[in-house]
Amino acid sequence: MSFSGDFRHSLLEGRAKGKCCRAAFVSGYLTGAGTLCDGAVRMNYVDPEAAAVLSEYLPAFDRAATLTAEGERRVKIMTVTGRAAVDLASDPAPAFPEFRCNLCKANYLAGLFASCGRVSDPAREWRLEFSCGDHRERLLSVFSRLGFDAKTTDRRDERLLYLRSSSAILDFFALTGESDFYFGLMNGSIKREIRNSANRLANCEANNIAKAISASDEQVKAIRYLEKHKLTGGLDPTLIACARLRLENPDKTLSQLAAIAVPPVSRAGLNHRLHRLCEIAEQHREKNEGQAKKGKEAAK
């Protein structure tokens, strides 16, 4: 089962004991999935686990309510009658139930998530979303009252409300009272951050190595050019020693070269000397190319 499925199963397995908590669960479920139709509240495709919980909790929500179901393994349509259910489904901005104990809000959110919620695996990404269809405005009102800044989007034929902020999603999980999943989210977040940090370090190291190899190759080519055109004899002794050090150690970084240089030289000093060698080679190359161009023009 997925992380989202495990969480939903845990919410449904929790079994609220108090009457007020059971009423809060049903209220949350109907807010997320209930649709008013012909004086009753309908819910489509309710899985057996949720159907059993609703059947057990419904009297706490409304003693006069009745529940009927169509379908066998998976309930295709579940119909709830009763004044309380109808009033809730018909209100575009439903009022919260009266939370009479500290667990009522947790059960209300449990019902809300069980009706239409899903959450991604925290090891991959942070995303808590509710496939709420025509109930989206109702859920926006609910989340606003809870203090969440929820966003909306459409995906194919789904109308979604979602949270992407890790802190908001953690707050939602904390409110449900599911401490194991709350800490599971935290652990998943930590693992993902460690993995991302390791990837960033690896990419940074790979980029640094690539830059060092490219710079070393350019330096070696410049020094070979100076040797080919017999230009090293007139260079400063420090530049000659630097050129020899680079040719003998083409695979070493500047820091590694500086560590074995004799006499000692700083990394910045070594870099300056190698840069100077490249400049001299480039200046001579440009000069030769300019003279060759002039010679061709004169020959014409």
Concise description?
62% of the residues lie in helices and 13% in strands.
Account of the 3D structure:
This protein is of the alpha+beta class. The protein has 2 domains: 3-177, Homing endonucleases (Endonuclease I-creI); 208-299. The protein is 62% helix and 13% strand. The chain has 11 helices and 8 strands. The protein has helices at 3-13, 19-33, 48-61, 83-90, 104-116, 136-146, 166-176, 179-228, 237-248, 254-260, 267-299; strands at 35-37, 40-46, 66-70, 75-81, 117-119, 128-131, 151-155, 158-163. β3 (66-70) and β4 form a beta hairpin. The longest helix is centred in the last third of the chain and has 50 residues, at 179-228. The relative contact order is 0.09.
Task: Chart the SSEs and their pairings.
Layout: H1 3-13, H2 19-33, E1 35-37, E2 40-46, H3 48-61, E3 66-70, E4 75-81, H4 83-90, H5 104-116, E5 117-119, E6 128-131, H6 136-146, E7 151-155, E8 158-163, H7 166-176, H8 179-228, H9 237-248, H10 254-260, H11 267-299
Antiparallel strand pairs: 1-2, 2-4, 3-4, 5-6, 6-8, 7-8
Helix pairs in contact: 1-5, 2-3, 2-5, 7-8, 8-11, 9-11
